[in-house]
Amino acid sequence: MSTQISGGRDRGRRLHSISAKIRPTSQKLRLAIFSILSDLPKSPRVLDLYAGTGAFGLEALSRGAIHADFVEVNARLCKIINMNIKLLGYQDRARVIKAKVDQAFDSLLMQYEDNFGGHDGGYDLVFLDPPYLDNPWEHILGNPSWGLLMKPAGVLVAEHSTDMILQGGYNKLVSRQTRTYGDSAISIFELLEN
Question: What is the torsional sign of CA 90, 40, 32, 96?
């Protein structure tokens, strides 16, 4: 399956991919998400969880994100993400973390303590797209680390099957809207300010 950037500086650029049992977020769905999120800060800091080929985070970089972190457990996909980062010239604005998402929180919190103090908090935008057959929602969305990892009023976009109904809130993450696109749905959560 061919994946390309749908907007911003690199619009139309094709990304490296692999023939594997992955389901990249479609170009149509990425366009819809960024249209919905048009009021994000001009240069957001982005976290792409279950990153796959990195299409979402790379899309955010193309659209002006200041930095994107990609978390992916599959070594082959991490290599593809790094190839795509190099292809688009984002080596100084991106980092790939090879880890399971739930295990990546410790690394991300260490980064927060080391680097984010001077950057007014953590991530403005988080994208969470686990395999549709998985159900990590309670564990991942309920993680108390979001209060540190996300900026106040930060946004988390969860892509999931239309068969999966997410709760209205998890700790400080509160659902603002859910939209469906074919067999995919996106639920948009906002981090409540203290």
Answer: positive
The answer to whether the Cα torsion of 165, 55, 142, 123 is positive or negative is: negative
Q: DSSP letters along the chain, please?
A: --EE--SSTTTTPEEP--SSS--PPPHHHHHHHHHHTTTS-SS-EEEEES-TT-HHHHHHHHTT-SEEEEEE--HHHHHHHHHHHHHHT-GGGEEEEES-HHHHHHHHHHHHHHHGGGGTSSEEEEEE---TT---HHHHHT-TTHHHHEEEEEEEEEEEETT----SEETTEEEEEEEEETTEEEEEEEEPP-
Q: What pLDDT, on a 0 to 100 scale, did the predictor assign at position 112?
A: 61
The pLDDT of residue 64: 92
CB 79 within 8 A of CB 96: no
104 pLDDT more than 70: yes
Domains (ranges, CATH) in the chain?
3-191 (3.40.50.150)
Beta pairing, strands 169-170 & 173-181: antiparallel
153: left (phi over 0), alpha (psi -120 to 50) or beta: left
Closest-CA residue to 156 (of 190, 115, 107): 190
Name the band, by pLDDT with cuts 50, 70 and 90, for residue 113: low
